[in-house]
Amino acid sequence: MLPLLLVLLLILVLFGTGFAVEALWYIAIAVLVLWVLGFFFRSGSSARWYRW
């Protein structure tokens, strides 16, 4: 019974990790798109839309 519970727990952990990693990919793509749009639509030649 214990090995079965451990396998089920492992499956749940791997499923949760896979979902989190996929969500992080979507967030990274959204940030990249916002950065590129900000780069192209900035106002003026010397204006910066970010504070780095």
Shape: rod-shaped
Quaternary state reads single chain
Average of the residue pLDDT scores: 79
Summed up, the helix count is 1
- Quickly give the structural class: mainly alpha
Order of helices and strands: H
Which spans of ≥5 residues are poorly predicted at pLDDT below 50? none
**Helix amount:** over 70%
Instruction: Report the sheet with the most strands, covering strand number, pairing sense and barrel closure.
Output: none
Account of the protein in words:
- It is built from one helix and no strands.
- Helix content is 75%, strand content 0%.
- The chain has a domain at 1-30.
- The protein has one helix at residues 2-40.
- With 52 residues, it is mostly helical.
- The mean pLDDT is 79.
What are its keywords?
about 50 residues, mainly alpha, Hydrophobic protein, transmembrane, membrane, transmembrane helix
Write the layout of secondary structure elements.
Elements: H1 2-40
In short, what is this structure?
With 52 residues, this protein is mainly alpha-helical. 75% of the residues lie in helices and 0% in strands.
